[in-house]
Every structure is written in C-alpha cells, then in structure tokens.
Design a protein that fits this description.
Blueprint (H helix, E strand, L loop, with lengths): L19 H13 L2 E2 H8 L3 H13 L3 E3 L13 E4 L5 E7 L3 E8 L4 E8 L5 H16 L4 H5 L1 E8 L7 H4 L3 H5 L6 H9 L3 E5 H12 L8 E6 L3 E7 L2 E3 L13 E4 L2 E4 L6 H10 L6 H4 L9 H24 L4 E6 L3 H17 L9 E4 L6 H15 L12
Parallel strand pairs: 4-7, 7-8, 9-14, 14-15
Antiparallel strand pairs: 1-3, 2-3, 4-5, 5-6, 9-10, 10-11, 12-13
Helix pairs in contact: 1-3, 2-3, 4-8, 9-14, 12-13
Length: about 400
Amino acid sequence: MGATAGKLSRGTTQSGVRLYNERLALSLIRKHESLPKAEIARLTGLSAQTVSVIVRQLESDGLLNRETPQRGKVGQPLVPFTLNPDGAYSIGLKVGRRSGELMLMDLTGAVKMSVHKTYRYPATGEVLAFVTGGLEELTADLSKRQRDRISGLGIAAPFELWNWEEEVGAPHAVLEAWRDFDLQKEISALCGWPVHFCNDASAACAAELFFGKGRSFRDFAYFYIGFFVGGGVVLNGSLYQGHTGNAGAMAPLPVPSAKGTEQLIRHASLYVLERALAAGGKDPLWLSRNRASWAGAGVALDRWIGETAASLAHAALACASVIDFEAVIIDGALPADIRARLVEEVRRHFAALDSRGIAPLEILEGSIGHDARAMGAASLPLFANFMIDRDILFKETT
C-alpha cells in the first residue's frame, strides 16, 4: 500500500528531521503561519548563520516554501517562509462505535480528502475491509512522489471497545473479538507505514489544540460528545495523557441525576439520544446518517440538550475545581447549530451553580466537530516526525 519508513526521503521521516533546531523552526513557522529567517533567529536565540543553514536544508527537503519578499522601510527585503503543504502527508483513521473515517492531511493540517462509513456496530473484519478500500481511495490520485511523502498513519479509537455491549447493541461475539485484536498491528500490515495509536477523545482534543480554538489557551479542559462522551486535558500548551494515556476521559465524572448521582456518560452521550429517537420509531443510525442536520429529531433532541447541558455544567465545575483552567471547550459529532445550542445551555446552567472559590473561565464551542477524531489521528505522524512539543513554543522570546 505504501512505502516503508526506511525508503522514505529525508524530508518525510523522523530520522530525517531529527535535529531539534529543525523541528523548532518548523514548529514556529506552523504556529505563526509564515516567518522570515531573521524572526526565526530572534524567537529561537539561534545565530543568523545557523538559521540560514536550517532553513536552506528544510527548503531543500521540500518542507518549506519561499514566499514573495516583503520590503520594509530600511534594509534588505525580508523573505517569509511557510510550510509546504505538499512537503509531507499523513493519514488518520477514526474507529467509532457507529462509524469509521479515513482522512488524508497535508503538512499544514489541511484535509485533502476523507472517506466515511456508517455501520451498526464495529466488527473487526468490517473495519479492516473499510481501511483497505479507504486507503486505496485516498491514495488513488496521488503521484509516486506524493505517496512517498506519506509519513505515517494515526489511529484514533476508544480504549476497550469490547465494553458497553448493551449500549452499543452489538452481539457479544462481535465486541468480544476486540479484546485480543491488535488494531495497530493489523493496520501496519495493511499499509506498511509507521502507525501511531491514540484514544479517540484524546485525539479530538489534540486536533482542537493544534488546529482549533485551543491554540489560544495554555490550559483547558475539553469535552467531546460522541457515542460516549470523552475528552482531554491540556496543560502548559500540551496534551496531558497520564501514565495510562487515559487522562481527561471525562465520562466517569459524577453528576447529579434523578437517581441521585450518575456518571456523565449516562447523560452527555449520543447513545442516550439515539435510544430516545429509536423509542420514537427512528432508525438507530439516523444520527450518523444525518451528520449535517438534525432538524427532524424533534422533542427528543430538545430534552437531550437540556439534560446534557446541565450535566456538562456540573462536570465543568468539577474540572475547574481541580485545575485552574482558562477555558472549557465543548465539541462533538454534532451539527454546528446543535453544538451552539448545547454550549449556550451549558453556560446558562454553569452561571446558576455555586462557583465561589473558582476563577472565572470561558465556556466555548469547539471548532472542528465530526472530523476532530480523524484530524487528531492524522496529526500524530506529522508531529512525531516534524514538530516539537507545543509547550516549548510558549518559551520563545516575545
């Protein structure tokens, strides 16, 4: 399917962009969108000569583009450099409980193409068949040079897919097959590229951090409303995953309910809305098949938004009580208008809670939506090969 890592050119592998200073330059240019060499030198503290060598090498590798010189009031014109979108590509795979998605991304984070599949439950064979066909579709129109610049494939999938059998509605054997199924190994055998793995909600949080509103905050809590609610924690500008990779899972957070206290997952999850719609006669896959608009959802949607918002407000307060977050960002596999309604309701409920002792924080809509998990997955190879941890960028001289 793809070239092996050892056969890729210098400009597309971690060993190629192995020097810290090269990664630092690429990361700063990504953050600022374009920078001249003089500004890179100022921000990094590196000498002008060192920066010239770095930029020359990255340009030679095809990772940077030289833009039109900008003439100032005095001195020589400044030549800004930008990331070359075609300098590298990556592929992201999202495996969900109701759908799968494959995405081709360029070095700037722009999505070039995506393939989506809806299913009633995630059978291992069906997922592998989707990946096989989807990879062929994503790469069919790429030239050999473009294929050779695919730096890897990232996977975003829930941990322990075999759990929550009743909620998913799958036969026992179908979900149980995931217990001993090594998805990362199976995908590696299909494609031949380096394969990275991340929890799906953590991947969505990474996408918001790198490509969305999260770029504006050092510390934020993130909620992603999928089939099950999940999330992530960003500290000092970096995704914090914890020692097991499950930090910021959010789903187990206790929230008030008619039964006393329940986990957040029992309220702020799409399976709850799916069940309510099914009770009214709709196909359980109606939500997945109508990604752009839920106009026909009716009163069940209104009720779900109200209950979910109340639960998210309590969860947000709990998060802010532990860590002094600047913001809480809420996104999900939701149409944009539904997300806006939900976040506005969360703000209203949060304002009514007793938040004495907690610093004010913003409650914001996420900016990516359905694509967040696949985008986060696709970003994994790019950041593994070309960038540095984002917290280092906050230490630059201003």
